[in-house]
Amino acid sequence: MLRKSIIMMALATAFTMNVSAVQIEVPAGQPPMPGADASIPANAYENYRAGSLSNVGASDVIKLHSESDKRMEMYRTDWELTQDEVNQIARDSEKVMDLLVNESAVVLLHDDRNNIRASVPGLLLASKYYPKRSDGERLSIVREHSVFFAIGTKQNYDDALGKLKTDRKGEFIYPGIPHGKWAIETESFGENTPAMVAVVGLDNQPNQEYMIGLSYKNQPVTDKLERVMSNYVIPSIRSLDDMDQYSESINWDNLLYRIPKGLKLTAQKSLKDSAEIRDYRGLGMRLVVAKKSVKVDDKYIYSFINEILEVKPESQIIGDAPIQAASVWNNGVPSLLVDNYQPGRKSLMYRFLRDDKNIYIMSLVYTDGAVPYSHIQLRNTVEYSDFANIETLRNKVIRIQSQEKM
Fold this sequence. Notes:
Layout (H helix, E strand, L loop, with lengths): L20 E2 L17 E2 L16 H20 L5 H19 L2 E7 L4 E7 L4 E5 L7 E7 L2 E8 L3 H5 L6 E6 L2 E9 L9 E7 L7 E8 L6 H14 L1 E2 L7 E6 L2 E6 L3 E7 L5 E7 L2 E9 L7 E2 L2 H7 L12 E7 L2 E8 L5 E9 L3 E10 L7 H9 L1 E3 L2 H4 L4 E3 L6
Parallel strand pairs: 3-19, 18-24
Antiparallel strand pairs: 1-2, 3-4, 4-12, 5-6, 5-24, 6-7, 7-11, 8-9, 9-10, 10-11, 13-14, 14-23, 15-16, 16-17, 17-22, 19-20, 20-21, 21-22
């Protein structure tokens, strides 16, 4: 399985990397990485789907289905829809619930000295960003209910690791991570809540370290914590340093976004509802960026529900591969990305994002294998964004309004 994967090596031995799989190497004398499984496909981090590692519990799933059944009955009795109409709504509702249950969170940090992304399985809807702590550290936190996930960055974390009151620690090496350290503490936030951290250095960033932390509240047994960190989070850690090789930055008023290299702006127009669109085409791809002004009652409560209901990304390009979704947090500001990736076939990505004045919708259509970029290069491109007034947008805790109403 995609999630269950990473072999540990407790002894220092030479190893060869299979072209279809990668491994974590453990230096001589270091303990094995807790919770790690046997092997991981080299492209595993392309998959957003949380599966059994999600923080959405069985009772939550039962509640979602129960509420959906009640809505279907209302459509039959009160709205007098035909059975075929109700069946179609029910199928669409199942797809949306599948996206919610399997959603992940992606955190990106990028500025003049930081370039990293990592993901964690689960529906995480709140964030706080600390741009400049006293020691120069940046820290981005996402959380919801029992899950707490954070990425911090500064030049060195040796002091922070040294202060941890734990004997459970070790070192590792992973592709793209020339040196890494891990530790598990039995208490965090003053509670009996274990936390696992990984401190990593990335290729081509010799003077920078990143600390990735994960904890599950009220779960004193660390089994799930270890499995998620070892088999999902660490494989998802990637440098963003190579993005200029396949994409370029575009500014549109307050928004900065990226497009695949080779695409050209073929049209820019205003629509009747005061929306504006930019249409990029080339190399067998089409990327449309739409901007529409919205009334923002609270700039710290983000909602994409109306736009998702209007676009219905879960109903487009039907294929065999499950649709994926993730909340994507760029420097502390959230968005939602729906990735309908169909290997070797026509595929589609939608991204919904917002600032304090506008809602933006990005849609990319392409045929996998027929364009000069890989799926992950295209998704990295669509994931990336920034805002000119980002400090204003994120100076309080930000929440995404739950999509359970969909």
